[in-house]
Structure formats: C-alpha cells, structure tokens
Amino acid sequence: MRRVAALALPALVVLAAEPLYVLVDTAVVGHLGREELGSLAIGGQIMALAVWLGNVLAYGTTGRAARRFGAGQRGAAVAEGVQASWLAFAGGVVIMVVLEVFAGPLTRAVAGSPGPVADGAADWLRIAALGAPGLLLGTAGNGWMRGVQDTRRPLYYVLGANALSAVLCPLLVHPLGFGLAGSAIANVVAQTAAGLLFVRALLTERVPLRPHLDVIRHQLVLGRDLLLRGAAFQACFLSASAVAARFGTASLAAHLIAIQLFFFTALALDAVAIAAQSLVGAALGGEQVDEARLLARRITAAGLVSGAVFAVLVAAALATVRPWFGADDQVYAQAKTAWWWFVAMMPAAGVVFALDGVFLGAGDVRYLRNLTFVSALGGFLPGIWLAYLLDAGLRGVWVALCLFIALRLGGLLWRLTGDKWAVAGAVR
C-alpha cells in the first residue's frame, strides 16, 4: 500500500493542479465582466476537448511504458514516451490549425448565436490554441514518466507551469491591459513551458528520438479504444444533464452541483487508478503474474476505502455547505433527492475507478471499452430516458447513474476473477 500511496499522492496533486488553475483564471476574468466570463467559459469548453485527448494519450502511454519498465527495459519504456511525444506533437499541431481556422464557427455554435460573447470566445480560442502542442506534449510526458514510476519530476513540472500561469494571468489581464487575451496568453506560456520541460526530460534519457511508425500505430489503436470509451462516458453525462433540464431549472441546477462534485471525487479517485496502472503494468511486464493479482486485490481494497471515505464526506457536505445552493430552497430540495444516491454510489465508484487502473495497466483496454458500451447502452441510457418518461425527477437521473456504476462494477469484478486480463510480457 505504501507503493500505491507513493505514486497516487503526487498524481493527485498533478490532477488537481489544472482545475485549481481554472478557478484562478475564472476569478481573474470574472472581474472584467459578464461577457468576458461567458467568452472564457465557451472558449475553455472547446479547449477542454484538447485536454481530454491529451489525457487519453497519457493513459495509453502509461500502460505500455509500465510493462516495458517492469520487464527491465527502461530504455524501451522511455522510447514509448518518445513515440507518444511525436504523436502528441502532431496531434497538437492539427488541433491548433483546426481551432485557428474554425474558432469563429465553433464558438458561435456553442454560444447559440453571434454576438460579443461568441466573438470574445473566438479571439481567446485563437490565442489559446497556440498552446495545444505543448499541452499534448505535457500529457504524453506525464504518461511515460508514470510508466517508469517517476512521479516527482512531473509534479514539479506541472506545478511550476501552473504557478507561472497563475502569476501571469492577473498581471496580463489587469495591470498590463490585455484583458481577456491576457488569460489566453498565460495559458499558452504555461502549456508550452510544461511541454518543453517534458521534452527536456526525454533528452536527458539519451534514447533515440527518431519516430517509429509501427509503435505509433499500436499507440493509435490503444488510443482509439480509449477514445470510444470516453465518448460513451460523454454521451451518458450529456444525457443526464439533458434529462435533468427537462425536469425544470431547479432540477438542472441541483444536478450540476452534484455532478461537479462527482467529477471532483472522480479526479481524486483517479490518482489510485494511475498508481494501479504503473504498478500492475510493471508487474506483468516483469512476468510476475501473481504479484499483479496481489496488487489488483490491494488496489481494489484501496479503492473501496477511498470511496467509503468520500461517501462520508459527501454525506456531511449536504448539511454543511448550504451556501452552494444559494438562497433557493427549490434547488436545495431537489439536491437532497439526488444526494443520497450519490453517497450510496461512492464506495462502488471507488472500486470501479481502481479496477479501471488495474486493467489499463494490464493493457485490457478492449474489454474496458466493451464493458462501458454495454453498461451505457444496456443500462444507463435506457434508465435515464425511462426516468424522463415516468417523470421520476432528479432521483431517477441518479438512479440511472448508480445503475451505470453497478453494471461496470459487476463486469470489472467478473473480469478480475478470470485469467484473460493478466497477460505477462513487455508488450500485450
């Protein structure tokens, strides 16, 4: 468990750094006015897709690098990072060009109509897009360094870049008079700095830097399955918001508060999953199948304990953070109907996130993809729309979310009891 904690705690800090910076950015821009804040929200929402793609690349790279590392092939593990970095840089350039060309149409589509908010978002996005290559290089770097169980340097790199951005943002936005553009410039500087630091880490490893298309192709296949799995998650959460909105504004507001807290807890529980990826991948890479199984059981227990702790905290939060709901009694009343389902879900969610990390480390991505599809199409989506047809309110929305977690939990525990996931060797 010490090894899990040693990897999970730095990973948690890295995961939390970006959301915390977004809060700082939002607070700074909020002083400019409502239109500027709306522009930042729209531009940031579009830019978040690049962050999502980068995280997909990082998760795929960690598993492959960890298996190589466990097999005693540190050079080959770092080489996975080299190829992932080439892929990240190419993807970042493509994202940058697409956003430069289509920033206007994209922001108008999200905003719903032309106007100053959409125009401001487009201007912000065109600047922020310049940071896309650095952003994806940073996530690829996080991936391979987790794979070789080096969590210290990523911690310094990410915290340093975000601290730089947190200092630059208020200076550029207000005293230097760049306004909303200052926020985008600060983002670009931080993302580029982080990307260069991870590239420097590759250079210090003294491994060949030439691209190998065969390795990149394998990483793309892995990334495809992770993208499809992520798309299923997005469809579920968008459907949940859409159905909550149909029950009225108070239901939607209460749902958004609860779901944002769920995303925050998921972020914390993901730190355990990252530790699981690295440790299980290394054990299987070293052909220590029994060790991988033991780690999987211990990580499952750690996920259960973490989920139970968050269940207690979330239960206490309903009574102690009434200001989250403002003065609106209707929103608070609606939140209470969902809250206890949220609390009940947390122990199971802790196990699910932990086992996701186990199977990602084992390279069992296709099974994870298929299980997510089955849970979404066979459980969550029918449940969520049945809740709408039966007028079950926000309670029905969260019952469907609990069903989604329960189906995934059952599928993951069933897989854990078998042998197909524990494939030994440097590659799968």
UniProtKB/TrEMBL annotation:
Keyword Plastid set for record: no
Keyword Transcription regulation in record: no
Subcellular location: Membrane
Spans through the membrane: 40-60, 81-104, 124-143, 155-173, 179-203, 226-245, 257-280, 301-319, 339-359, 371-390, 396-414
CDD domains referenced in this protein's UniProt entry, alphabetically: MATE_DinF_like (cd13136)
Keyword terms of this UniProt record: Membrane, Transmembrane, Transmembrane helix
Membrane topology field: Multi-pass membrane protein
One Pfam short name: MatE
Chief location bin: membrane
Xref: NCBIfam families: matE
Family: Belongs to the multi antimicrobial extrusion (MATE) (TC 2.A.66.1) family.
Protein name: MATE family efflux transporter Mmp
Organism: Dactylosporangium maewongense
